[in-house]
Amino acid sequence: MRRIRSNLNGTGFAIVILAGVNLFVLLCICVLLTSYRAPRFGVNIRPAASHFSIERFDRSSSHIITITPGETPRYYVEDKEIPDGLEGVKRLLDGWKNTPVRADMITVILACDEAVSIGTVQTLTDLIMQHGFTCAFYGRPATDE
After folding, report:
1. How many CA atoms lie within 13 A of 30 on its CB side?
2. What is the SS3 assignment for 108?
3. 86-116 confidence digits (pLDDT tens)
4. What is the Cα–Cα distance from 62 to 41, expressed in whole angstroms?
């Protein structure tokens, strides 16, 4: 039986430290990759029970519009409130249509509270689609409760 011996000098403490640093860097990268979240402004989005479509969107040609509930719903684009309600949204969509990017390449993602009336959501969806944009809805997958 042959005896195996190591040619390495020392205890390998530097290798353990290097492995720890590499794990820390990997953890930081994982946190940075998953840190992008859509702004919700305290909106509670009710998850649907079935038929999920998980897709990737080009962030340079997509916009997020958030609708908050109330007698007069408020609209937000990314992190700013749109003044004048639905009329302000129309002006905003007209501005997006005049960009050099083709209208069918722009995706408008709607995030709305479950308390927002379906009529408000449908009106905004129709307005977005009349401008030739792709309309999508932001939501969380249903949890097993």
Report:
1. 6
2. strand
3. 899 999 999 888 888 777 788 888 888 778 8
4. 19
